[in-house]
Amino acid sequence: MPTAPFKLVILDRNGSINVHRDDFVKSETEWTPLPGALEAIARLNQAGWHVVIASNQSGLGRGLFDVASLNAMHAKMHKMLAAMGGRIDAIFYCPHSPDEHCDCRKPKPGLFHQIGERYGIDLAGVPTAGDSLRDLLAGAAAGCEPHLLLTGMGEACRGVHPLPPEYPPGTVVHEDLAAFARWLLAREERESLKVAV
Question: What is the pTM of this model?
Fold first, then answer.
């Protein structure tokens, strides 16, 4: 496959972009963005990054909500993002419950493979950020660069250094999505300066 023709970043949703709920986010009213998360996506967009979501949505398979409810959550997210000049290019989600043993439920990399196929690119080195081990394992299995956010389930890793050995080698830890975006843009600026020199 050709190398990425554009700048792509893959994000988890629950606990990374919006508030995590132990009882699942089941409706648009329960979907609440984390502070600074939508602004972070807009900043990435404005710097030329394409943002895609890879999300487990087992609440569908468990019968806790339907596709119409999921679409309403995403419509709310898109509308709020658009107001900030940001956008999500695509949302890939696994609708299955854990006992269905599918290939797309993270930590399996099926969603990431679907993204690579949709865009016709090799995901090697593509940054992916999420709040749980399974997000990072799925991304790393597809060759992505893993980034852990200390929001949602990631809060359990706050102050833990080094990370437990089950985390992918080279995992970079960030306070939240805004900190991840700042890190990514700062690295990009450093690399562009090297090229200029």
Answer: 0.95
